[in-house]
Design a protein that fits this description.
Elements lengths: L1 E3 L15 E6 L1 H6 L2 H10 L7 H15 L4 E6 L11 E4 L2 H10 L1
Antiparallel strand pairs: 1-2, 2-3, 3-4
Helix pairs in contact: 2-3
Length: 104
């Protein structure tokens, strides 16, 4: 995980904090954040809340259904604070994620 600035010029300011994080997530981690998709997966695998094997089947179903892939994501977030929205991505490299964040 890296912390970067949306505006790179702020990095030299004495009292500014990074306002963006970049991180890597697998396809499984990405679909687990999608509440609507996981709701559908739980309808397909109702025992997923009781059994880790069934939970993995539900996650695998969600990955296949959505076509999700792993990759780099960025998220607006000050250090020590909760994120300011959902993760944006995936991107093939961390540099692409940073470039997209700074282009916003």
């Amino acid at each position: 995980m890296s912390q970067v600035y949306f505006d790179p010029e702020r990095e030299t300011e004495a009292h500014s904090l990074p306002d963006c994080e970049t991180f890597y997530m697998t396809a499984e981690e990405a679909v687990e954040l999608d509440e609507d998709l996981m709701y559908e997966a739980l309808k397909e695998h109702p025992l997923a809340t009781m059994n880790s094997r069934e939970r993995q089947k539900a996650i695998d179903w969600a990955v296949n259904e959505s076509g999700a892939t792993g990759g780099w994501y960025w998220q607006a977030c000050f250090p020590g604070c909760l994120p300011d929205g959902p993760p944006m991505g995936p991107f093939a490299t961390e540099a692409e994620a940073i470039a997209d964040a700074q282009d916003q």
